[in-house]
Amino acid sequence: MAIASAPPELTLESATTQDLYRELLSRIGEDPTRDGLLGTPERMEKSMAYLTRGYTMDVTEVLHNALFDVDYDEMVIVKDIEFYSMCEHHLLPFFGKAHVAYVPKGKVIGLSKVARLVDVFARRLQVQERLTRQVADAIEEAIQPQGVAVIMEASHLCMMMRGVEKQHSATVTSAMLGVFKTQLQTRNEFLSLVRRGRD
């Protein structure tokens, strides 16, 4: 009678993503073979792929067919764009709202694409400061406007669930380019319009 050979030893090179999640569950003291966790490695793999899908998204493709030649040179604002991201330091979520403005110079972006652009960069491992600047830089590169402004307000679970455990703290970051940086009146108009309706 043939004796069944032992399964090959798992190495980092041969391990699947699900193998790694299974190992992680073991290392935190769980039993990955128990009923409630049997499907967890597969769910974790799918979840992480979705939460970090920004790595597979391309700004040029997202904006494709949504850049329009328009004779308009007043401020365009898309505010209260909800976003969700993952802190690259602890792999915990942070989430909030983005406010994006630009002053066109012959070209505008389809409004829904501004929100999609935020998602391209939010759905990656991030720090909020970089995320804010990446959105501003992408708009500047796409349409070369007179200026771009981005403000992001977010709650970070790495501050709420662990560490200092401050439940009501919020982090606000901004990026001001072009006329938003050089012209106080333009910047103040943007800030005023973002705050409108909150008082």
Structural class: alpha+beta
Adjacency order of strands in the biggest sheet: 5-2-3-6-7
The helix/strand series, from N terminus to C terminus, equals HHHEEEEHEHEHEHH
List the total number of helices.
8
Q: Give the % helix.
A: 25-40%
Largest sheet: 5 strands, mixed
User: What is the CATH first-level class name of the largest domain?
Assistant: Alpha Beta
Question: What's the gist of this structure?
Answer:
The chain has eight helices and seven strands, in the order H-H-H-E-E-E-E-H-E-H-E-H-E-H-H. By secondary structure, the protein is α+β, with helices and mostly antiparallel strands. The protein has a five-stranded mixed sheet with strand order 5-2-3-6-7, sandwiched between helices. Strands 1-4 form a two-stranded antiparallel ribbon.
Give a topology summary.
Elements: H1 17-27, H2 40-51, H3 59-63, E1 67-69, E2 76-87, E3 93-103, E4 107-109, H4 111-122, E5 125-126, H5 128-143, E6 147-156, H6 157-160, E7 171-178, H7 179-182, H8 184-195
Parallel strand pairs: 2-5
Antiparallel strand pairs: 1-4, 2-3, 3-6, 6-7
